[in-house]
Amino acid sequence: MRVSLAFLLAFGLTTAVHCKDEPAQGTSDNPYPEEDGPDDEENAPEASDEEEDIGQGTGVHEDKGEQSTVTADHLRKLHKTLDKDKDGKVNLQEVMEHGHHMRKAVVTKEIAGIFDEIESTKDGHLSMEEHLAEIGEFHEGTDEEKGHQKAHDIAKFKAADVNKDDKLDKEELVHMMYPDTHPEVLDLHTKEDMRKRDANKDGKLSKEEWTKDHTSGEHIDPDKKADPEGDFANLDEDKDGFISFDELRHWESGLHHRDSAMKSLLEMADKDKDGLLTADELAGVADDLDGHDSHAHIMEWVFHEDEL
Predict the structure, then answer these.
(1) What is the pTM of this model?
(2) How does pLDDT run across 114-138, given as a tens digit for each residue?
(3) Residues 6+ apart with CB under 8 A from 67
(4) Residue boundaries of the structural domains of the chain
(5) Residue 175 pLDDT > 90, yes or no?
(6) pLDDT tens digits along 198-244
(7) Which residues lie closer than 8 Å to 137 by C-beta, 6 or more apart?
(8) Three-class SS state of 228
(9) Residue spans of alpha helices (H) in 83-206
(10) How far apart are CA 197 and CA 207, in angstroms?
């Protein structure tokens, strides 16, 4: 049974491959799955059995029984992968580059897994007309506001369309649905988020504007209590009391969260405080990862890299 892309966006069925710190559901405000889900789940229509089946078994993040605990041996193997220059030590840049590679690989596999089940891609592509017909149901507000949202969707589609053939294939659909995988799409996504949240139109977000519409986003562990003021303080790197476009872009890219988690991991594991991790140092924190901000990332890298 085929389903619409709008259904997948609305009910988050493309989240099967995400870690627990990366929920990805669409909303009327933000129809792409990297943003928060429906505000009122009780009012959402129930999915049929067939539709529910499509959302199951499609991802690489399903539990694998015995593969639920990261061991020292796992981390030694991961260290070999991270150590690109083979000098026996891993720096933060190597860790972050691996994280970016894994993120792109995971979401690309996700889209490949559901692409043939989307009604509008039955010919192997998603056209602009098909996209607008489906995404239009998420537009809300005044006619002017709906016009802004439609213009944003068109611009995002065109940016994702790398070969400029006016249709999206599997990989280009990844760019549109996951803006952090494509710089131009991420710029547009951040610009639209700023437009919606910047009430006084000064090109930056005050603490009040930030907290009023605060969402943790897909890169934060949903089990953790929301901390809008803490997020604001951490994201405001120049400490001018505002979130700039670049700072908001850093947040939307997921790099803020991954960078913070990996810096914390390095500080915990780096026993000699030289800013680098040996295999022994990384293996030494195996028992301390559960509950750590880096845990979901490490689980993904350890257990699923061979599948990508």
Answers:
(1) 0.73
(2) 888 888 888 999 999 999 998 888 8
(3) 303
(4) 5-307
(5) yes
(6) 999 999 999 999 998 776 555 555 556 778 898 899 899 999 999 99
(7) 6
(8) helix
(9) 92-114, 128-135, 143-160, 170-177, 183-197
(10) 11
- H or E element at residue 283: helix 279-283
Rounded Cα gap, residues 172 and 162, in angstroms: 7
Q: Which two tokens stand for residue 242?
A: 């505002």
Return the DSSP state at 225: P
Look at residue 118 and give its three-state secondary structure. strand
Place of tokens 């129930």: 46
Per-residue pLDDT tens for 256-294?
888 889 999 999 999 999 999 999 999 999 999 998 989
Distance CA 110, CA 18 (A): 9
196 close to 213: Cβ distance less than 8 angstroms: yes
**Residue carrying the six token digits 């989240």:** 15
Mean pLDDT value of segment 147-174: 96
> Taking a C-beta distance cutoff of 8 angstroms, is the pair 23, 37 a contact?
yes
3 state DSSP class of 77: helix
Spell out where 14-148 has E strands. 126-127
Q: Please report where in the chains the tokens 């994702």 appear, as a residue.
A: 160
Rounded to the nearest 10 degrees, what angle do helices 92-114 and 72-82 cross at?
Answer: 100
